[in-house]
Amino acid sequence: MIRDTYMDRIRNFSIIAHIDHGKSTFADRLLQITGVVGDHEFHDQMLDTMDIERERGITIKSQTVALPYRGKDGADYILNLIDTPGHADFSYEVSRALVSCDGALLVIDASQGIQAQTLANFYMALEQDLEVIPIINKIDLPSADVEGVRRQIEKDLGLPGDKAVMVSAKEGIGIEEALEAIVRDIPPPRGDPEAPLKALIFDSHWDAYRGTIVHLRIFDGELKPGDIIRLWSTEKCYKVEETGVFLIQREPQSKLVAGEVGYLIAGIKTVRDTRIGDTVTLDKRPCDAPLKGFQLAKPVVFSSLYPVSSDDYDELADALEKLKLNDASFTFEKDHSTALGHGFRCGFLGLLHLEIVQERLEREYGLSLVLTAPSVQYNLVLRDGAEVIIDNPAKYPDPTHIKEAREPFIRASIICPDQYVGNVINLCIDRRGIQKNFNYLDAKRVELTFDLPLAEVLFDFYDKLKSVSKGYASFDYDFLEHRPTDLVKVDILVNGEKVDALSMLAHRDRAYDRARKSCERLKKEIPRQLFKIPIQGVIGGKIISRETVSALRKDVTAKCYGGDITRKKKLLEKQKEGKKRMKLVGSVAIPQAAFLAVLKTDEDE
């Protein structure tokens, strides 16, 4: 009975929101008002520990913190805030964090209303059967439409609009009311402290002195130092060295019991050994079955990283190993390019994940990098019945051996004002999208659902979407399946030599466009020689695009100030023969800037 009373004083909740709706600022106010952080220690975005997170205003790595709060009923509560990433790339991590909670605060911007990711996160919370409390944030803005957002909450989410808590996280308005709503509306955790240990890993991070710090929620049983635990998916066993809770910093505890959220340290060497969504139990007294929903995080976007200077290869290898310690979803293997030398083929959860890794390598480790064009995984069925998965154009087999190629498709949800619907539909159709749904959310906002090839979303789709909608469209997606596609490999030839680092896999309809742009950009970057340099885009043996870098011409007739024209012709013919010989033996050095120009997206297109 005592333990039940203790569990009744715990609330496990998460804050979910669309990007830039004020989630991190709201979390800051909760930390301040509950006294976890003093004014002298406080800084904006307390739970965002990386510089990139603060600069971009996004949460990349989820954080956990226990908030002590004395309610208006005089009772002392422990509110476990499990912060979540806000981007679609990290949706699996969000889903596992939500499983660890009993409720969620859904933060909605009073001026922007419900967006695509607001809906996606709300449905994810509903799937986990969580109590959802709507929070209308930024009520202090002149453009705030509180009543309009209330109506959206009732119509789009089916939640009572009058129950929404009015908040201005920036001004500190309504934070007490939000804390009271957490205590009042979110149910306390349920679990049996006497049952065998059953705990969910929802995150982990690397500590240079202690190894992997595992973040977990205890559903049943208890966990204390000295216990021998077993990780369900890997069946590896470890001895627990320390258990505790997060109060910004780690706070050791004698034990963790059912209903609590905390951490364990057990001498686990790498983050790779702990998988998000895995179940932790005791080796001698295991639980009957693991918690549902576990899956391995699989990379969906692939790119090769090469150091600008070949001398930096070892530093890049060390930096990738260190990043891997903190990021289990990031993968890499050795790669080699004739043009760029030795590098690594890396796998990412999405384009944002790729940008973050690139930025961290350049900032934290001082590396200058060249990235090849991002690619997705294609499933190929060969004529002999074998199936292969490729993400690297260099490994693309002979087209005559391929029976069928399949590419990944996503189900995209786009919410935008109705005046931009035509532009958005045109953009999606241009990217080979298939419209699935068209739904008016209210008089002015439309929800569009499209099936899109993931490869078409990789490059500049998000930027283009923001451009055609004047920044008002919001975008969210889920992976669907692999579907048959007409896949071709486009090679780029410079002076007849294939440049392997610029090869790309593309749909046949898009191949000409991609090849033409690559040739145009290379023409601008490759310095002129004393002979013409052809730059060609090729599919198999067929040239589909061409640009020519014109030759530098030495004026050999300058010394002929008069006389017979045949003398000038003789000199020009001699020069022509010399250029032919030079072209046969001459080689073209492609500058680093040319690779970067081809691989970047073109904002002006």
Describe this structure as you would to a colleague.
With about 600 residues, the protein is of the alpha+beta class. The protein folds into five domains: about 1-185, 3-Layer(aba) Sandwich (Rossmann fold), CATH 3.40.50.300; about 200-270, Beta Barrel (Elongation Factor Tu (Ef-tu), domain 3), CATH 2.40.30; about 300-370, Elongation Factor G (Translational Gtpase), domain 3 (Alpha-Beta Plaits), CATH 3.30.70.870; about 380-485, Alpha-Beta Plaits (2-Layer Sandwich), CATH 3.30.70.240; about 490-600, Alpha-Beta Plaits. Helices cover about 25% and strands about 35% of the residues. The protein has 15 helices and 32 strands. The protein has an eight-stranded antiparallel beta sheet. Strands 2-3-1-4-5-6 form a six-stranded mixed beta sheet, sandwiched between helices. A hairpin with a 2-residue loop joins β31 (about 535-540) and β32. α13 packs antiparallel against α15. It is elongated, with a radius of gyration of 29 Å. The model is unreliable at about 45-50 and about 600-605 (pLDDT under 50).
